[in-house]
Amino acid sequence: MELLLDRRKFLKDAGALTVSAAVMGASAPAMASAVVADNARIRAVLFDSRYASCREFAAALAREGALALDLQPDPAAVWLGPLREHLAQQGGGVAGLAANSDFVLAVAFSRNLGLSRRYAGSHDARGSHLLTHRLRGANAGEIASTLGREDSSWPRDLAQALARLASADPTQRRETSIAHTSGAEDHPGFLQSWLLTPTLPGLTAPPRQQRLARR
To answer: What's the whole-model pTM score?
Structure first.
């Protein structure tokens, strides 16, 4: 009798463990996605304080908890000093809106900080009274549609869209899209925006490039 009870207890415990393992297995992808999303949150935003669009972009992300760092007058010093220290403590991604030279610098410094480019956009008003936004990255079409809304602020809308993109699936297909808006009076002619997020193993190149490499 005692042996029978022990057998029943063993089968009951084994069944409970099986159910628990199944639940944990089913929730593992969701848990992993949540961890990735939290790690990719925009923790810092870089901007050029000389221009209203850049200041508004940074202010929108600062309200979401990002540390706003002015790239003037020495962008390299920002990357090597306060930004590096902040990311070492907080982790996360970096967004920016500044001159094209600042974007080139961001791409170069990001490699040493374990960051990869998720999005890049140009905002060109040269030779036109309109501002042309050329956006490259996941959800570029969706971002472009938000920038084209009437009576809206494109720097703020862009900042909010990048905050959502940072936490989205990093394997999403990249695309290119264009939008047109009016620009601020002090727009310098050409600005560049970007989003850099922590590099994930196996995702150092865009998904399409990875598929081609495996062939």
So the answer is: 0.78
